[in-house]
Design goal:
mainly alpha, 5 helices, 76% helix, 0% strand
């Protein structure tokens, strides 16, 4: 157990990438203003929606994968307990949500960081969903 590596949080990077995507889309509207045709605005909206809809699950999957990998390597018994709740050949993110928001961190600072990253990834997914109507209104 003494050879544990310190886990580095990537949540800031996840949020910065998403803010860059959103900023890019909104800046096009403000830079070009009324010179953009409705068809072009529609393409920009679709690009934002598709990019965000692909990006948010990738972030959640990455956080989930990192967390499960760390638990498997350093907290094998707890990992097995979590895996029992997940059907074979499938993913059950509700088990992940339950774990991320539980209070048990196994007295491991890395697990605390991983759980914090998981919470931030779920928050990012909610922000992306909330941003759709806001960006749509801005691009009108």
């Amino acid at each position: 157990m003494s050879n544990k590596q310190h886990y580095k949080s990537y949540s800031r990077i996840y949020y910065l990438i998403w803010l860059c995507i959103m900023g890019f889309v909104i800046s096009i509207k403000f830079l070009y203003g009324d010179n953009i045709a409705n068809e072009e605005l529609l393409i920009i909206k679709y690009w934002y929606f598709i990019t965000s809809l692909l990006y948010a699950p990738v972030v959640c999957f990455h956080c989930s994968k990192n967390g499960m990998k760390y638990l498997k390597n350093y907290h094998y018994i707890e990992w097995k307990e979590l895996k029992k709740k997940i059907p074979t050949f499938s993913r059950n993110d509700f088990v992940g949500i339950d774990f991320v928001f539980s209070k048990d961190d196994f007295n491991d600072p890395n697990v605390k960081i991983l759980k914090s990253d998981g919470k931030k990834a779920y928050a990012l997914c909610l922000l992306v969903l909330i941003s759709f109507p806001i960006v749509s209104i801005i691009l009108e």
